[in-house]
Amino acid sequence: MSITTTSLPNGQVGAAYSSTLASTGGTPPVSWSIIGGALPAGLSLNQSTGVISGTPTVSVSNSSITFQVQDSGTPKQTKSIPLTLTIAPATLTITTASLPNGMVGSAYSTTLMATGGTTPLSWSILSGALPTGLSLNQSTGVISGTPTVSVSNSSITFQVQDSGSPQQ
Asked: For residues 36 and 101, what is the distance between their CA atoms, to the nearest angstrom?
């Protein structure tokens, strides 16, 4: 009896995942189990089919998991294999589509929003500039202050970076 699966495909938080562990030899039916480590939250192992499936809710990097297969023979045969699994964070996406208008001399505050990625996030301005009197907090994405000049349809390109490896 031997395990023929040699690696597990990478997955991503929030995306459906499915991979099948395979073995040859032994007396069917076989039964699969985890004897070391654990699958990330959202994934489960079907003990009779060897299918790992679900939608992962947390990211892991090269997490070591030891799987075991056991046949139905007498005596029972067992084999185990350590495999690594990587579940990447959800894709980092800026969800702020527009900024609210402000008025010269009036306090202004709005927060740039993003989903996915690995926190903490870091915000920056790639092109354009905020009106005089406003500033961007790089760690919170808050644009605040009191504008002192008038602008109309000013184009500003914002960027967000996460702290994952690789960085998004």
From this structure: 55
